[in-house]
Amino acid sequence: METTNANLDCVEKYRKLVQQYIDLHVYDAALFWADKVVAITNTPRDIYWLAQCMYLKKQYHRAAFLLQSKNLDKNYLLCTYLTVKCYYDTNEYNEALNVINKCDMNAILNIKNECTPNIPENDFGLFDNVPKNQALAAFYLLKGKVLEGMDNRGLAADCYKQALYCDVYCFEAFDLLIKYQMLSASEEQDLLQSIPIAMQCTSEEAHVVKALYELRLKKYHTPQTQVIKNAPVIFITNKSDNSSHFIKSLPSTPNLQITPTSISTPMVAKNNERNLRKNQKLHMTKMQVDPLDNVNISKFQGSLDFHVAQSEILFYNCDYNKCINLTEEILKADPYHDGCLPLHISCLVELKQSNKLFLLAHTLVDLYPNLAISWFAVGCYYYINGKSDYARRYLAKATCLDRLFGPAWLAYGHSFAIENEHDQAMAAYFKASQLMKGCHLPLLYIGLECGLTNNIRLAEKFFKQAQSIAPDDPFIMHEKGVVCFQYQDFDAAEKHFRAALEKIRKIKQGPIQSTWAPLLNNLGHTCRKLKKYEESLEFHSQALLLQPQSASTFSAIAYVHVLMENYDEAVDWFHKALGLKRDDTFSTTMLNYVIEQWAEDKTPFSDCPEDIPKFTGLKTRNETTQNNVSGDTGSNMSLTNNETQEMSMDM
Amino acid sequence: MNDFKIDFKSMKYELLTAIHECSERGLLQSVKWLSELNFALSHVIIKADGEFKTLDDSPNETAAFLLAKSYFNIKEYDRCAHFLKNSHSPKSRFLYLYSRYLSIEKKKIDNMTDVNCPPNPTQNNNLKELCAELKSDFYDNKLDGYSIYLYGLVLKKLGLKTLAVDIFIKSVQEQPMLWGAWFELGKLISEKNKTCSNQLPDHWMKFFFMAHTNLEQLNNEEALQMYEELYSMGIQNCTYIMSQIALAYHNMRKLEDAIEMFKKILEFDPYRLDNLDIYSNLLYVLEKKTDLADLAHKVASIDKYRVETCCVIGNYYSLRSDHAKAVLYFKRALKLNPNFLSAWTLMGHEYMEMKNTNAAIQSYRYAIEVNSRDYRAWYGLGQTYEILKMPFYCLYYYKQAQQLKPNDSRMIIALGETYERLDRTENALKCYYKACTMGDIEGSALTKLAKLYDKLDEIENAAAVYIEYCLREEDRDDKIPEEQRDYYNALQYLANYYLKKGNLDDANTYAYKCMECEETKEQGKALLKAIAAKRIEQEDLDPEAEVA
């Protein structure tokens, strides 16, 4: 009796030791004592903990063997979970799936799918009061990951959803569902509506959770459909110049998972808070960029995720300067915030700040050579420096490390696109579109490439598809307009362009971002084709305000003037265009033509008589001749004017 | 503007306040201008000197402002901007934006590799960024008068001139004492939108502005009149006004008066370099070599690295026909300030002398970019394209010059010559005609006109012109035989004309005159023979001749 008692005592003590050492990450000691406990008790619970220690020591096969040899992987949920996790971490997905399929729990689990789980805890083989729904959620999550690892993404998504249904707090499942752009915006909304938040939380908390999750949703959306009032209106960016655009995405590595409450240094947080407040109060009407209007979640303002969400909005609004300011703040507080990094890199690419990108890429590669984002940064660096070969090499590496990393695929496509390798670019975009089913960007880019290869019909098809995903994106409207323009259907083109412009004006009052200068120019071109010259000029001059000193705008304006037969102006604008771009053949040819027209057209000087004047002799004969003092082509061309007394500015 | 009156006391008070405000903000040129004016008013005495409290000083930003301002003063603009990044008071905000602007401009000049071209306008991204920022702030009504002025500056730099005009107008409405804004406005306003003057605030600064703008637009008479009014009102000893008057004289070709004025300025303020390049132009035109040499030495001893100095020295070398050296100095001037107009034009002339047409074209073009009202640059461009045998372009440029200087016969003759080259004889003729009626400086218009009349078979007119020409030539004292070819050709033409007409006496006179020159001697003899023959014929058929 005494020995059993003593045994029990020391078992308790050893169990405690194991826990403490695990908490302190002293795994060898934990393993040692866990082993001793198992020797005494040999209960499934202790064996589980022994396996746990092995797992933590990264001895995955050892742990799996232990659990399987004791047949625990069939009857106990946690043990099954751990076994699967071991195989998952060694990338042996088939083995992992085998374990899942063979486990006895499946029967119970399948039942549970249909009704709310009321099965007693013992049936799952849980220990230590692990909440059953969390355990189940984790199990489904893992199953989903295994399936995803086997490229079975449809089933994986189902598993994630189940995980979320079991436990609405299981953010990872939510994040995995949305972060790879698998779902379109409306599907995301549906998902959020369908998860049983209300059932699992108190009503107040339910709002908070919902609002927090909403922050993570896609942000290129019209303001009306957003649930949060005054909410983010975002658009994915740019195209016609083929400059790169990447959607935000997180690298999938377990050790970097972020939670909604990541740390931030107080100072920055305070600053940001102030900014946010300012935005809220001063620019309520103006900046629809503030996701924090919801009182429920305002207490989480210190969380960097909020700022990330905000900078995302800025990015999609093409406000790169403001965005980069914000991301820089965020990265100051948390230098490797993985939600912010892709955004930050994209901004650096947009602003072509190769120096900063160089430093960032180096640091990232040094610290996280296994993360796709690091190599993505390197690839982007080479991309903006125009070294497409290197860019491709590193972007390919990024896609190898994380096959689901969409931005890398897009950038890979861009690297081909800028070299006019349309087919290869399209291949990369296609790959991206497969990965990011909920994102219209790849489709848009494919359409663009089709348009560039004169395959207008196909381009139109892709734009249509893209629009079905993101119906309100002005970029798509713009591109559709371009296609119509190529078809010579100028009325339709004008319609599309105007729709895009209207959309942009709706998103943000105040000055339009300079990214949109091409749109205004295209409107100008279209109006010119439709012979609305005045309007055309108006649009071109607006474009000029957004993007000053652009040679092509200058020559477009000049061309309109030619058509309006304002040769004076035309010559002037062509001169300006050629001043910026001297070898522009269009402007040169046009100028040659126009200047001749102009000479035909014009009277030699302002008050020139119609007929040949009759010579009647000069009255002021004696005053006229006064010798000119300087040499005639001398430096100071002295243009002596003897008739000052008669001088009148008659012009 | 005639009922213009100034209350000197309030003017002085405003000046003092403005000087304080502008110097707080580092607007050095405006401060200079205001202070010059203030100095000219030193006879006016007002109380309460030096009590200028600025209202928008928020105490928690004062320290940062002072620090930043000190960096600004030693031209460390980036540093200045850094410390004001988060300031919100209008003054700090302005200094922040302004130092960023100056930093961008400074870097642009520093990065200029070749002086032959000003900073590349396509690499203006920083400026565009700043512009976008100012734009959104402007839209949000967050800019004060000074910052609006800065916005205008940036717009102007980016070539958005029409918008810049509106912005500057807004700026002077808010800050009528900001001379910089007036100044820029004067440079931008073209005659077309002179109407905007009723948008301008009714402030005594407007008077200065109007005078300045008149001068810019070559409305010299009016400008001069306005400045003289100011002068008579008691604002004397203001070097600014004096130099403006000198410029007006210069534009009106009253060269001696202009030189007189410059001498007066230099007497009063011997170290003033502003506008001395114009002075050197005057000396150049009058070929006052020694005076120019003296001026060159003087300015070089004052400050070697000023644009004006470089231009003076460049002119000096040019007068000595050392064109390569002249170009060197103009280049230096442009390195110091790529927006210095007259250096571009002068450099263009030098390149023309050196027969480097391409470089000349470039220089002229930049000159026009800096100020499209520079008729000398337009004319120069016309000349270069004439050399390049591109008559249509040439026509365009001459025309621009002619429009700017409608009463200058040289422009219109150049225009006529181009028309002639393009076989548009009628237009050419009209040009020459205009040149003749306007007072022909070079004296070639008459013969040219006559030739064209002849070409168009307007023989009567041609003869009339030749008669006019011959009369004028005979009046001239300084006859140089080699240059008399046109004259003898004219005589010959007239002889022929009268011969054909049967007016044998006149024909005889002109034919005799032809004998005076070697070249036309033979023709003269032939003509005389023909006349004699005709005379005999006429005597034979006397009655018919009477009828004819």
UniProtKB/TrEMBL annotation, chain A:
<dbReference type="Pfam" id="PF13424">
    <property type="entry name" value="TPR_12"/>
</dbReference>
<keyword id="KW-0131">Cell cycle</keyword>
<dbReference type="Pfam" id="PF12895">
    <property type="entry name" value="ANAPC3"/>
</dbReference>
<dbReference type="GO" id="GO:0016567">
    <property type="term" value="P:protein ubiquitination"/>
</dbReference>
<dbReference type="InterPro" id="IPR019734">
    <property type="entry name" value="TPR_rpt"/>
</dbReference>
<dbReference type="GO" id="GO:0005680">
    <property type="term" value="C:anaphase-promoting complex"/>
</dbReference>
<dbReference type="GO" id="GO:0051301">
    <property type="term" value="P:cell division"/>
</dbReference>
<keyword id="KW-0802">TPR repeat</keyword>
<feature type="compositionally biased region" description="Polar residues">
    <location>
        <begin position="623"/>
        <end position="651"/>
    </location>
</feature>
<keyword id="KW-0833">Ubl conjugation pathway</keyword>
<dbReference type="GO" id="GO:0045842">
    <property type="term" value="P:positive regulation of mitotic metaphase/anaphase transition"/>
</dbReference>
<keyword id="KW-0677">Repeat</keyword>
<keyword id="KW-0132">Cell division</keyword>
<feature type="repeat" description="TPR">
    <location>
        <begin position="517"/>
        <end position="550"/>
    </location>
</feature>
<dbReference type="GO" id="GO:0031145">
    <property type="term" value="P:anaphase-promoting complex-dependent catabolic process"/>
</dbReference>
<feature type="region of interest" description="Disordered">
    <location>
        <begin position="621"/>
        <end position="651"/>
    </location>
</feature>
<dbReference type="GO" id="GO:0005737">
    <property type="term" value="C:cytoplasm"/>
</dbReference>
<keyword id="KW-0498">Mitosis</keyword>
<feature type="repeat" description="TPR">
    <location>
        <begin position="551"/>
        <end position="584"/>
    </location>
</feature>
<protein>
    <recommendedName>
        <fullName>Cell division cycle protein 16-like protein</fullName>
    </recommendedName>
</protein>
<dbReference type="InterPro" id="IPR011990">
    <property type="entry name" value="TPR-like_helical_dom_sf"/>
</dbReference>
UniProtKB/TrEMBL annotation, chain B:
<dbReference type="Pfam" id="PF13181">
    <property type="entry name" value="TPR_8"/>
</dbReference>
<feature type="repeat" description="TPR">
    <location>
        <begin position="341"/>
        <end position="374"/>
    </location>
</feature>
<keyword id="KW-0131">Cell cycle</keyword>
<dbReference type="Pfam" id="PF13414">
    <property type="entry name" value="TPR_11"/>
</dbReference>
<keyword id="KW-0677">Repeat</keyword>
<dbReference type="InterPro" id="IPR007192">
    <property type="entry name" value="APC8"/>
</dbReference>
<keyword id="KW-0833">Ubl conjugation pathway</keyword>
<keyword id="KW-0132">Cell division</keyword>
<keyword id="KW-0498">Mitosis</keyword>
<dbReference type="GO" id="GO:0005680">
    <property type="term" value="C:anaphase-promoting complex"/>
</dbReference>
<dbReference type="GO" id="GO:0045842">
    <property type="term" value="P:positive regulation of mitotic metaphase/anaphase transition"/>
</dbReference>
<dbReference type="GO" id="GO:0031145">
    <property type="term" value="P:anaphase-promoting complex-dependent catabolic process"/>
</dbReference>
<dbReference type="InterPro" id="IPR019734">
    <property type="entry name" value="TPR_rpt"/>
</dbReference>
<feature type="repeat" description="TPR">
    <location>
        <begin position="239"/>
        <end position="272"/>
    </location>
</feature>
<comment type="pathway">
    <text>Protein modification; protein ubiquitination.</text>
</comment>
<keyword id="KW-0802">TPR repeat</keyword>
<protein>
    <recommendedName>
        <fullName>Cyclosome subunit 8</fullName>
    </recommendedName>
</protein>
<feature type="domain" description="Cdc23">
    <location>
        <begin position="11"/>
        <end position="246"/>
    </location>
</feature>
<dbReference type="GO" id="GO:0051301">
    <property type="term" value="P:cell division"/>
</dbReference>
<dbReference type="Pfam" id="PF04049">
    <property type="entry name" value="ANAPC8"/>
</dbReference>
<feature type="repeat" description="TPR">
    <location>
        <begin position="307"/>
        <end position="340"/>
    </location>
</feature>
<dbReference type="GO" id="GO:0016567">
    <property type="term" value="P:protein ubiquitination"/>
</dbReference>
